[in-house]
Amino acid sequence: MPKSLRLLQAVLVILIITLPAVAQPPIPMRIGLVGLVHGHTSLLLKFLPSHPEITLVGIAEPDATLREKYKSLFHLPDNIFYTTEAELLDRAQPEAILVYTSPLAHRAAVELAARHHVASMVEKPFSTTLADALAMQRASLEYKVPVLVNYSTTWFPSNTAAADILASGTIGDLRKIVVHDGHRGPKETGVSPEFFSWLTDPKQNGAGALYDFGCYGVDLTTWLMHGELPLTVTAITLHIKPEIYPNVDDDSTILLTYPHTQAIIQGSWNWPYDRKDLEVYGATGYVNTVKFDHLRVRRTGQSDEVLEAAKPLTSAQSNPLSYLAAVIHGQIQDPNDPSGLETNVKVMRILEAARESARTNHTIALTQ
Fold first, then answer.
1. What φ, ψ does residue 290 adopt, rounded to 5°?
2. 367 falls in which pLDDT band (50, 70, 90)?
3. Domain count of the fold of the chain
4. What angle (nearest 5°) sits at the alpha carbon of residue 327, between those of residues 324 and 330?
5. Residues 224/289, Cβ–Cβ less than 8 Å
6. What is the pLDDT of residue 21?
7. Is the CA virtual torsion 291, 152, 203, 188 positive or negative?
8. pLDDT given at position 299
């Protein structure tokens, strides 16, 4: 070999050794979808293309009509569909499942996934009973897999900003929490027939508006109270539109009492417009959320309130898919997280007491 060629070869070897390694893109997280009866399914499938770090590897749905509906709407291939969750888990081997069944079916879906060492994220509410919530908690602990709950309010920068302002002490000690959630009603907002069917079934949904929208406020309150259980739970439900919702409540108010704080949670299918807002009152000031990313704040000593923009959330905290991946990869570990398991077992304890309070017209005392 000529000397000049050997010299060139040596230079190339040195360059290759000294060049920094090109980072390989992370392997996308494999997720499966269990159930297609939840109205939020379309939102998820529209959202997925903007998340290249996530790969949908399978959908389990026993109803052939629903499978064809979503196959057509989102141009999905035939080989991604399965009739049962067991088939999905065995053949597609996801790392996590997203559960879009009725809440009554959450327990079976989560327990089966846990036995396959697969994480789960269910849509709110966590379950229809405390017994099911505790069973899912046991499955999570036994098989050491995350079990999470997706609330849209977890991803609101305004809610996190309100919690941060409370923690800063600039509005004083917490005295009162008021939460409003809901809309004009499932029928009035045009939900799909399969969604309407279980939303208005007290067995499949646990209740009506009490569970469907009361769960948001109970979740946020439990988070703001750092997991402290209330002393008492009192709930009032109304049947304003029995001709539309003959079997479930369509309006609810839950009152939670703590040693120095009250929470008033209003979940309804009778609001004149959609709403998800939070009011936090301290001893010397207050913060009210305005939609997704703004706040009205009056801090200690201020003569009037000011409108503020909430700081954007980190990527891992800004949406359910990034959050799920961060939890699975060990980047998020917070038992008091609004979508966390520990928080949501307590949420179900409160909601079950609220349902009993509404049924009996009595206040329910919770043992600590």
1. -120, 100
2. confident
3. 2
4. 150
5. no
6. 55
7. positive
8. 95
